[in-house]
Amino acid sequence: AGAKLFVLRQGEPRWCELRGGQGGDAAAVKCLAVSPCGRYVASAGNDKSLKVWAVVQGEEEGKCLWSATFPKRVSSLAFSADSGVVFAGDKFGDVRCLAVESPRTKETDKGTEIDPRRVLGHFSSIITCLSVSPCGRYLASGDRERKIRVGCVPPSPVESGVHEIQAYCIGHSAFVTALCFASSRSLISASWDGTVKLWSCEDGAEKDSVHLGAGFGGGTAPPI
């Protein structure tokens, strides 16, 4: 038992076992993200933990580099454009972040623990998806309440918070299921309302919309 990651490298598929996880339902992977550099995979499941894995070839392949416990279950993941930070949205409406190579820690009664830093909140609405622009400037987040926020990522440190909102993208009639930047200026979203929309990141204007049928949600099931 235990989680496994299917790695496809240069057209030669093979299984890469993620070592260091726990078996059972608590270890079930609910969301994944692959770093732009291709060296890391982040995963999260029912046990409220976020794990970062090495997927480079060699002795480190498949190794769990670290694991962090969140207050609520993580529902979405995304890496920064430079692969140095992983963002995690949870079912309480918060987005937190951690440095991939040197995550922030704190001292507790149980010893030293990794400390995810809150950078953005959606006011108790479940975060359903995250995406970071290719330029690294924007962090887009979608939620259960049909809202999309495009926040400005601070140059450094990211942990200081995504306090400046560049735009709100409002127009879906059901919860947002997927986000993807088409460029550093354009954002694509999918929703359970059956539409795929194209937005301007700068002012949140809807540039195009295609209806693909009721219940189409970008290949995802309704989050619970």
From TrEMBL:
<dbReference type="InterPro" id="IPR028884">
    <property type="entry name" value="Trm82"/>
</dbReference>
<feature type="repeat" description="WD">
    <location>
        <begin position="169"/>
        <end position="209"/>
    </location>
</feature>
<keyword id="KW-0677">Repeat</keyword>
<dbReference type="InterPro" id="IPR036322">
    <property type="entry name" value="WD40_repeat_dom_sf"/>
</dbReference>
<keyword id="KW-0819">tRNA processing</keyword>
<dbReference type="InterPro" id="IPR001680">
    <property type="entry name" value="WD40_rpt"/>
</dbReference>
<dbReference type="GO" id="GO:0005829">
    <property type="term" value="C:cytosol"/>
</dbReference>
<dbReference type="InterPro" id="IPR015943">
    <property type="entry name" value="WD40/YVTN_repeat-like_dom_sf"/>
</dbReference>
<dbReference type="GO" id="GO:0005634">
    <property type="term" value="C:nucleus"/>
</dbReference>
<dbReference type="Pfam" id="PF00400">
    <property type="entry name" value="WD40"/>
</dbReference>
<protein>
    <recommendedName>
        <fullName>WD40 repeat domain-containing protein</fullName>
    </recommendedName>
</protein>
<dbReference type="GO" id="GO:0006400">
    <property type="term" value="P:tRNA modification"/>
</dbReference>
<dbReference type="GO" id="GO:0043527">
    <property type="term" value="C:tRNA methyltransferase complex"/>
</dbReference>
<keyword id="KW-0853">WD repeat</keyword>
<dbReference type="GO" id="GO:0036265">
    <property type="term" value="P:RNA (guanine-N7)-methylation"/>
</dbReference>
<feature type="repeat" description="WD">
    <location>
        <begin position="22"/>
        <end position="63"/>
    </location>
</feature>
<keyword id="KW-0539">Nucleus</keyword>
